[in-house]
From TrEMBL:
Species annotation: Geomonas terrae
PANTHER family to which the protein is assigned, alphabetical: ALGINATE BIOSYNTHESIS TRANSCRIPTIONAL REGULATORY PROTEIN ALGB, TRANSCRIPTIONAL REGULATORY PROTEIN
Protein's name in the database: AAA family ATPase
Domain (Sigma-54 factor interaction): residue spans on this chain: 183-411
A Gene Ontology biological process term: regulation of DNA-templated transcription
Keyword Cell membrane among record annotations: no
Domain of life: Bacteria
Entry keywords, A to Z: ATP-binding, DNA-binding, Nucleotide-binding, Transcription, Transcription regulation
A Pfam match: Sigma54_activat
Chain segments annotated as transmembrane: none
Region listing for Disordered, in residue ranges: 431-453
SUPFAM superfamilies for this protein: Homeodomain-like, P-loop containing nucleoside triphosphate hydrolases
Classification lineage: Bacteria, Pseudomonadati, Thermodesulfobacteriota, Desulfuromonadia, Geobacterales
Length: 494
């Protein structure tokens, strides 16, 4: 029963109706107690689906249809929640309840003595003027925030995020996700990376990205592009190690017709394709010496010359380069030009390996799982053992390996649960069980400590909600909802 509603005893015959597997079920029950948002019914014999209809016959108003959900069953009957319906139905329902209100001097909501029956209750502040026609609207208005709060308290962080996303994107059509919002991470290392991305993105500086394979270098390059003034221009990515050395120059700089055997027509290279935007040169450590010289020339004068061409042309691009090799060592050993290294190295972002990102591992795994599950409209979760195995695994292939393992787990899961074996991580789980980690790893809020995480984030950000929300990688409205949900006040946070 709704805690905020006036509840009366009644004896209404009602039909409960639902459809399962194309079959219509009807059952007659009796409503014993009724409020605007709930009822207690007796005589229910079947298992109900999550949502069903109940059709009480209200004396004087006839049959009304209400949408309902089962809250709990007991020996006395079943408690159901009634959802707000159209105004006419609500008025009929309220008319029935009002007619059965026993005269009392106590507030029917909270029991506080009240003899005026005018205005609001001194204690719970709810509107008491039942006799007025406007009561229903005033009641709905007055109780809206409290109803919302009751519901919010039952939701977890992910639900709240989903609802806010839905409202923003589907109802308000706000495209509020920033391009790096799919970039998951709240570990110290990743927060530093995000801060650097935001700082350097709007500039025209060349950026060098360092990090093991699969740590997110390409994603970083895309974020740099999206957060720059070049975002409307093209983003062109070239994996220099994937193109044979003999073809790389023509691929990057283009060629004129007849420049070499097989050059039947003039072709633009990737530099020209990226004109006005960003060129991402992945595996830059693998380009041959001749191309290193050509790239250096470009960085100095911004001119390119097609293979077999006689003139040069100006190109307006920003270069973001990446490598998982130790360029400094390659430079010392003579495999990479020092002048090019220093040109590219004017701003460097180092992506930490996944094994050093603490609880980000689990956060990323959940992010990928959510994506796969949403694409196939399935509900699937990790078992506790899987979560532990994800924490323990060393992840030599970093985020790409994690994504692949979660994809495998998603395909192999049975009964809606991914066990370590589904991801081929059973050994990591067994070693975790044998040597439990004393260090629970820093990271995002777990259910039991979520309040503490929210308080900590607020403290660390001088109570600036937007910044604390950013630190926890949640939206600002979600942060406000959490502050309210946990009743956090500035004084508690100290
Ligand atoms: N922090 C992250 N949040 C969400 N997805 C990520 C993150 N980091 C990486 N990914 C995903 O992991 C995969 C590998 O990332 P990416 O290709 O950017 O890595 P890389 O360092 O460029 O790899 P390589 O060196 O092998 O080219 C991609 O699917 C990418 O979207």
């Amino acid at each position: 029963m709704g805690r905020l509603d006036v509840r009366v005893r009644t004896n209404l015959d009602s039909v409960v109706q639902y459809i399962s597997r194309d079959e219509r079920h009807c059952e007659t029950v009796t409503i014993k107690e009724l409020s605007l948002s709930g009822a207690l019914v007796s005589g229910l014999t079947t298992q109900l689906p999550e949502l069903f209809a109940i059709r009480p016959v209200l004396p004087g108003a006839g049959e009304v249809e209400l949408r309902a959900r089962l809250v709990r069953r007991s020996e006395n009957g079943a408690a159901i929640r009634i959802f707000y319906s159209d105004k006419k139905t609500m008025q009929a329902l309220w008319g029935h309840i009002k007619g059965r209100l026993a005269p009392s001097d106590d507030c029917p909501y909270c029991g506080h003595p009240d003899d005026s029956r005018e205005g609001s209750c001194d204690r719970c502040n709810l509107y008491l003027n039942f006799g007025k026609d406007s009561y229903l609207e005033r009641h709905i208005e007055n109780t809206f925030a409290q109803r919302l709060n009751i519901r919010l308290n039952r939701l977890n962080l992910e639900h709240i995020d989903k609802i806010i996303d839905f409202v923003d994107s589907k109802l308000l059509k706000i495209k509020h996700r920033s391009p790096d919002s799919e970039f998951i991470g709240t570990s110290e290392g990743m927060l530093a990376v995000f801060a650097m991305i935001r700082k350097v993105a709007p500039t025209e500086m060349s950026v060098l990205l360092l990090g093991e394979s699969g740590t997110g270098k390409e994603l970083t390059a895309k974020a740099l592009h999206e957060l720059s003034a070049r975002r409307e221009g093209p983003f062109v990515a070239v994996n220099c190690a994937a193109i044979p050395e003999t073809l790389l120059e023509a691929e990057l700089f283009g060629y004129e017709k007849g420049a070499f055997t097989g050059a039947y027509a003039t072709k633009k290279g990737r530099f020209e394709a990226a004109d006005g935007g960003t060129l991402f040169l992945d595996e830059i450590g693998d380009i041959p010496a001749t191309l290193q010289a050509k790239l250096l020339r470009f960085l100095e004068d911004r001119l390119i010359e097609r293979v077999g061409g006689s003139g040069s042309r100006k190109i307006d691009i920003r270069i973001v380069a990446a490598t998982n090799r130790n360029l400094q060592k390659a430079m010392v050993e003579g495999g990479f030009r020092a002048d090019l290294y220093y040109r590219l190295n004017s701003f460097t972002i180092k992506l930490p390996p996944l094994r050093e990102r603490g609880e980000d591992k689990v956060r990323l795994a959940r992010h990928f799982l959510e994506r796969f599950a949403a694409a196939e409209n399935r509900r699937i979760d990790f078992s506790a053992a899987s979560v532990e195995a994800i924490r323990q695994h060393r992840w030599p292939g970093n985020v790409r390996e994690l994504e692949n393992k979660v994809r495998r787990g998603f395909l192999m899961a049975s009964d809606g649960l991914i066990e370590p074996a589904c991801m081929e991580l059973e050994e990591d789980f067994h070693s975790a069980a044998a040597h439990p980690s004393p260090d629970p790893q820093p990271g995002p809020p777990r259910a039991e400590s979520r309040r503490e995480s929210v308080v900590r984030a607020l403290e660390q950000n001088d109570y600036v909600v937007a910044r604390a929300a950013r630190q926890l990688q949640i939206s600002r409205p979600s942060m406000y909802a959490l502050i309210k949900k946990y009743g956090i006040k500035k004084d508690d946070a100290k």
